[in-house]
């Protein structure tokens, strides 16, 4: 976690985050807007998101205005794959803004999933986080790195990791549902919990409007990741696995192909 005072301190904190990733000390970065510059907590969601977007100027190639309008701030970071042990690029380290006013049911952009006690930005990669989770499970259960396991033991870990990752995702979303006025901000599951609906597009940095989007749950995307790992252990070649082929951006309900597997 790092406290952010301006765009320059955000850039410096991001570099420290990269070093921590390379040392396997973290899987995500939380950047908290300093109390010294933060807007009053009752400022509108839009105002707080605009401030967060301005702080990204030195780490983003797009404008703050574009970020607040539902744009994506995704970083491609080369790291050692926790499962295969080889270097690869993870292209889904997404920055997402959170703010206190998102918890206010009277704000037009009310959405507890985007709420936090203080304004902050989180950088996270679903693919890398799942990879690290799978590695940690191997170390805990088998006492060794995944790439040192025999095929049957490796597949056992893959199965357990996929099942637990889905369970964690369901529990997280269900937790938000219990604190959300679902009439004002609908959240739901569909297709045997392989799809979830939210009143925002994940992983947009921020948004000025609210509408429903469908997103893939782990039970849809972890089999694709595991299949790529298995191909690596069979062939020695690791697929590129671009994020859009694994965990696509959230789809509007009326968008063709929204539920394609």
Note down, in words, how this protein is organized.
Helix 5 (151-178) packs antiparallel against helix 6 (218-235). This protein is of the alpha+beta class and 261 residues long. The model has no long low-confidence stretch (mean pLDDT 94). It has a 5-stranded mixed sheet. The protein has a 4-stranded antiparallel sheet with strand order 6-7-8-9. The chain folds into 2 domains: 2-125, no CATH class; 131-252, no CATH class. The chain has 7 helices and 9 strands. It starts with a strand and ends in a 9-residue tail after the last strand.
Outline of this structure?
The chain has 261 residues and is α+β, with helices and mostly antiparallel strands. 37% of the residues lie in helices and 18% in strands. Helix 4 packs across helix 5 (151-178) and helix 5 (151-178) packs antiparallel against helix 6.
Shape: globular
Computed structural class: alpha+beta
Q: What Rg is obtained from the alpha carbons, in whole angstroms?
A: 19 Å
H/E element string?
Answer: EHEHHEEEHHEEEHHE
* Widest sheet, order of strands: 1-2-5-4-3
SSE arrangement:
Blueprint: E1 2-4, H1 7-22, E2 28-33, H2 45-54, H3 64-68, E3 73-80, E4 87-98, E5 120-124, H4 126-141, H5 151-178, E6 188-190, E7 195-198, E8 213-216, H6 218-235, H7 243-246, E9 251-252
Parallel strand pairs: 1-2
Antiparallel strand pairs: 2-5, 3-4, 4-5, 6-7, 7-8, 8-9
Helix pairs in contact: 4-5, 5-6
